[in-house]
Amino acid sequence: MSTLETPLKKELGDRTAVALAKAFGMERVGDLLRHYPRRYVVRGELSDISELREGEEATVLAEISAVHLRRATGRTILEVVVTDGSAKLYLTFFNQPWREKELRVGRTGMFAGKVGLFNGKRQLSHPDYQLIPDGDDVDEAVSGFAGKFLPVYPSASKFPSWKIAQCVEIVLDGVEELPEYLSVELLNELGYPRMTQALREIHQPSSLESSALARERLTFDEALLLQVLLAQRRAEYRAMPAISRTIKPDGLVSRFEALLPFKLTEGQLAVCAEIEIDMSATHPMHRLLQGEVGSGKTVVALRAALTVVDSGGQAALLAPTEVLAQQHFKTITKLLGPLAQAGTLEGDASGTQVVLLTGSMNAAQRRDAYVKIGSGDGGIVIGTHALLTEALAFHDLGLVIVDEQHRFGVEQRDALRTKAQVPPHVLVMTATPIPRTVAMTIFGDLQISTLRELPAGRTPITTHVIPVLLKPHYLDRAWERLREEVEKGHQAYIVAARISATETEPEGMTDMDRAIARLVDGEKEEKLSLTSVEELAPELALGALKGLRVAPLHGRQSAELKDATMQAFAEGKIDVLVATTVIEVGVDVPNASMMVIMDGDRFGVSQLHQLRGRVGRGEVPGLCLLVSAAAEDSDAKVRLSAVASTLDGFELSRIDLDQRSEGDVLGKAQSGVRSHLRLLKVLRDEPLIEKARLVGSKLVDSDPTLAGMPTLAAAVAQLRSEEASSFVDKG
Ligand code: ADP
Ligand code: MG
Fold it and tell me: Looking at CB atoms within 10 Å, which of 99, 184, 311, 611 has the fewest?
């Protein structure tokens, strides 16, 4: 009898096992059994192509009558025409040229998906399909499968869905009863089938109801493993010792507060109080602080840092990029004023020093930073990954602040943590609002604080979409408006998606952006014709914005030039900055009141929201114009309208996440967690995640080492080590 660990070789023979390993990276029985069907084709529910209507989910039995592969820069489009005798249906696949090999003219198969209408033709884009093996009698093949429900699997070139189904059948035959994660009592309480039965039902359903329940059980397992892991982490944190850090009367915190040119908002005060209580405890704080750009997180984090300095320790702020680290360094040095100049003549003798440490510093600068960090003279240390270097030693690291958490994994948090003799307090900050379930999934080991309000005095930003194709004159009006803004003494940003005309791809594009771009103009074959900084800046300076001081800013300029340009803009010596998304982070010029974003459809929802957060930071009302050539009924237009219609970052992040794959939702650093999630969708499965959290916490509370549940304990341990190794892989 086989188990989940049995090599597939033993069950399926060498040839098939090698093919499965190549196609999907599967090694063991468990890998194959966790390759779940995406859907089932139900015999008797096949539709006539002539009767398909737009928007409907359909499965058709049809023959391939034409195949056409089109190639363009960076993408391919495979168009397949199928017919069932009654009518034609078009299938399209983006960037999957290999499917041409199996989707050959004359082959018959079942094709399933949502019917769309394009240029008046009915089409399925990226349909699931199941080809009838060559030479098989079609009727027999369709009716000949074991059950009534034909599983449709995610397939690969060498491995069509029907072949996977055959392998699964063989493997399931060799499986008797697999070790079970959950106790009988718990299974009864939840009303779930045993795991073995669930695996059988999901691959070979006896009814749609039982396969749905099986799927729920297996989805719940995924959520549960994560929640147990998180519950264990919380328990570990509670068991760790920490140094209690409290505010000294008349110390740095109180002098800092006296220096602040503004009053903290209610929200800031509340979060500061939470942090104060956390850090005064003798076990470490693990708190996530979320709040939009400009909500005042930095001030809150700085106060926490000063609390630690007050009590004789050091705080380290870990930033994801060099630019952000430098920006934090400048902001914090400025906010602290004389308090950051200990050891200098102008400085406050009882203050501290702020130290910057980044990878680009030269040996002398680095040595200087190391000395200050090692001696403890540097009370506040700001840096990039360079802070994680093994050779770096702190005098007394009491607080770790991680900015923009989801670019870092748990392990990186831990790497910095080990630099303290006693576990430090940890504060994680993020400007991307995180929906509740995502927070419970990724940050479930942290306490969460949220800054919902922006500091008073901010005026809301007004956002409009400019449809350039439909209303080209609106753009002329936009430049006039911008000129008026400058004449009133304000400044403006213009954002372009790329640096120069010769570039093939916009700057700072993520995989997600690329995927969206491809889908948006998948049907357009012409080369990307996006506005670039290098074209637009001179064009405006000589044309529509003649007489204004216009300067370009982008990532390919030297660090000195970028700095000088930003400096000049901050001092009001430049009226209009034409920039790429380099301005997304770290720019704070309250006098800037207007932003025009060219090719707005090229940016993600959250990115647009972050970008426009650069205006309306002062007393002046902000105006943001999103210029786009996207069609009125396109997804891109819907995204832009969403951004224009609300300033609620939580709402926008939900829209943004809805369009992303689970991998993107969980962030790059979470690949251990990600590869474990096959069925769970963090946005969709809220009730299941909550149930798993409850069950997971209870299990860990009553049996912290899970001694009574060895199968569960082993699976959780494996998840933990996968998460750890995904961190090691990335160095
Ligand atoms: P975040 O880090 O959340 O993006 P910051 O802490 O950088 O936000 O704050 C944004 C701007 O608002 C900064 O210029 C900061 O000095 C200012 N600020 C912060 N808190 C307040 C407040 N309570 N009242 C007025 N301005 C504030
Ligand atoms: Mg900030």
Answer: 184
Atom of ligand 1 nearest to the CA of 295: 3
Sheet holding 550-553, edge to edge: 461-467, 622-628, 592-597, 491-495, 576-579, 550-553
Cα-to-centroid distance, 672 and ligand 1 (Å): 35
Index of the ligand 1 atom closest to the CA of residue 451: 3
Q: Pick the last residue of a domain from 128, 153, 176.
A: 176
Residue 328 CA, ligand 2 centroid: distance in Å: 7
Residues 6+ apart with CB under 8 A from 269: none
Question: Mutate which of 260, 263, 272, 298 to test ligand 1's pocket (most atoms within 8 Å of Cβ)?
Answer: 298
682-723 pLDDT, tens digit per residue, is 777 888 999 999 999 999 999 988 999 999 999 999 888 877
Residue 233, in any domain of the structure:
no
Whether 678 maps to a domain, the answer reads no
pLDDT of residue 640: 92
On whether both 424 and 476 belong to a single domain, the answer is no
How far away, in angstroms, is 617 Cα from ligand 1 center? 9
Separation between Cα atoms, residue 443 and residue 670, nearest integer Å: 11
Beta strands in 547-672 (DSSP E): 550-553, 576-579, 592-597, 622-628
Residues with CB under 6 A from ligand 1: 262-265, 268, 291, 293-299, 431, 455, 588
Domain span at 488: 461-646
For residue 270, report the distance from its CA to the centre of ligand 1, in Å. Answer: 15
Q: Which atom of ligand 1 is nearest to the CA of 260?
A: 16
Identify the band that residue 278 occupies on the pLDDT scale cut at 50, 70 and 90.
very high
Residues 499 and 421 in one domain: no
* pLDDT bucket at 728, cuts 50 / 70 / 90: very low
Q: Note the pLDDT tens digit of each residue in 621-644.
A: 899 999 998 877 777 888 899 899
Integer Cα distance of 131 and 143 in angstroms = 14
In this structure, the residue with its CA closest to atom 23 of ligand 1 is 264
Q: Which of 151, 176, 201 is the last residue of a domain?
A: 176
Residue of the nearest CA to atom 18 in ligand 1? 296
Residue carrying structure tokens 């729920």? 216
* Ligand 1, atom 19: closest residue by C-alpha: 296
**Per-state percent for the chain, helix, strand, coil, to nearest 5:** 45, 20, 35
Query: Which atom belonging to ligand 1 lies closest to the Cα atom of 292?
Result: 3
Nearest CA-CA partner of 653 in 438, 445, 465: 438
The CATH number for 368's domain is 3.40.50.300
Cβ count near 28 (within 10 Å):
20
Q: Which two tokens stand for residue 481?
A: 């408006």
Shared domain for 476 and 427, answered yes or no, is: no
Looking at ligand 1, which atom is closest to the CA of residue 588?
14
pLDDT of residue 730: 36
List b or e across 234-270, with b for residues whose CB sees 16 or more CB atoms inside 10 angstroms.
Answer: bbebeeeebbebebeeebbbebbeeeeeeebbebbee
Q: Give the C-alpha separation, 233 to 254, whole Å.
A: 34
Q: Tokens representing 607?
A: 């990115």
- Asked if 616 and 294 touch (Cβ cutoff 8 Å), the reply is no
Ligand 2 mean position, distance from CA 560 (Å): 22
